[in-house]
Structures are given as structure tokens and as C-alpha cells.
Amino acid sequence: MIRKLAVTAAVGATRHTSFPPVVRRGAHVLILGSMPGAASLAAREYYAHPQNQFWTIIERIFGVLRTLPYAARLDGLTANRIALWDVLESCVRPGSLDAAIEHTSAVPNALTGLLRAHPGIRRLCCNGATSYRAVQRYFGAELARDFPRLECLRLPSTSPAHAGMRLEAKVASWRQALGPTARRLRVRDE
Predict the structure, then answer these.
(1) What is the Cα Rg of the chain in Å?
(2) What is the pLDDT of residues 115-151, one digit of tens each?
(3) Is 139 part of any domain?
(4) Is residue 119 part of a domain?
(5) Is residue 190 part of a domain?
(6) pLDDT greater than 60 at residue 60
């Protein structure tokens, strides 16, 4: 069940809309962000901010070079049975920080519909606390009831705003979460 919330926002505030999911048959893991930041929205690419560590972490775990064109990085991600999306379909947020999301304006994506369409997904990896809290807020009861074997993990945020944790520690956390279900295909720049 998709819950559409009452959408309210300050006069003149901009509503931001997320991207479609990146997923293909055989996916085992779904990485969920909260909402793309300003740099990602402008580039129309997940994790486009040059200081976001997402693609660096993916490179360290799977060998998918962060310097590859965006489409090739997505191919490398999905070849490793990883899907990518955001919890929120849209929201009002001045700036790029998750803390600035106006939660009364948030509209969640159709997460449970995606999970039904891709029953091989058995783990949700939330990119940071905001994503994890949003999954719990909008889908917690439904996931527990309809997807009892689905694991939902909160991972350290790859955002430049989460600078209190060293990259090596983030890579270790992400590797532990992603490694057990992925095929570890290596995609290299040729």
C-alpha cells in the first residue's frame, strides 16, 4: 500500500522529485537513499556530488571504477545484483541536507511494489540514518507483515555531511552488508 501524505510546503519552496529505480532481474540488495541532493538532481545521476563517497565505496568493494561513465557504473552495480533507489519520491527541501527535508511534504516511493516485482531482493541497505528512519516511518509495519524475511540495515551515510567516520570504516561496513549477497563481478575501465 502506498501512502500519500498531505503535502504542505512554504510558499515559494521547491518540490524535488527523485529518480526511477535502477534495478534488474536477479537483484538481491536494494540500496536506499533518502532523496538526491542538489548536485545529483542537477546531473540527473545518483550520488553525483564529487565529495559523496558512494562510488568510491562501490569501487573498493566491486572494482566498478568511479571514473567510468554513469551508465557503466550503473551496469557494474546491477551486474553485482545491487539495485538503487530512494525512499522518497518527492519532498520539499531547501538545500541538499537530509536534515532540511520538510517531512510534512514528503511522499514515499512505491517501495513495496518494487519488492513484489523483484522478489529476489532480500536486503535493504539504507544509506544513512535519514533513509533508515524513512523506511521505518513509511513502510516498517508493512515490511514486517508482508516481507518477514527481508533484512533492513542502516549503513553509514556516504554523504559529505557525514565526515565524522573515516572512509576505511565506511567501506568495511558497506562491504559486510553488500558482500554476502553479491556475485563480486569486477567491472574495469578498458
Answers:
(1) 16
(2) 999 999 999 999 999 999 999 999 999 999 999 999 9
(3) yes
(4) yes
(5) no
(6) yes
Q: How far apart are CA 31 and CA 82, in angstroms?
A: 7
Domain count, the chain: 1
Judged against a pLDDT cut of 90, whether residue 162 lies above it is answered with no
Is 127 among the catalytic positions? no
For residues 173 and 90, which has the higher predicted lDDT (pLDDT)? 173
Q: CA torsion sign, 51 to 55 to 112 to 176? A: negative
Residue 66 lies in a domain: yes
Domain holding 98, by residue range, is 15-181
Give the residue from 56, 70, 58 showing the smallest Cα distance to 31.
58
Written as one string, the DSSP assignment of the chain is -PPPPP----TTPPEEE-PPPB--TT--EEEEESS--HHHHHHTSTT-STT--HHHHHHHHH---TTS-HHHHHHHHHHTTEEEEESEEEEE-SSS-GGG-EEEEEEE--HHHHHHH-TT--EEEEESHHHHHHHHHHHHHHHHHH-TT-EEEEE---STT--SS-HHHHHHHHHHHHGGGS--------
CB 171 within 8 A of CB 184: no
Tell me which of 52, 80, 109, 127 is the catalytic residue.
52
- What CATH number should be reported for the domain holding residue 168? 3.40.470.10
Put the strands of the sheet holding 123-127 in their side by side order.
82-86, 29-33, 123-127, 151-155
Predicted model pTM: 0.85
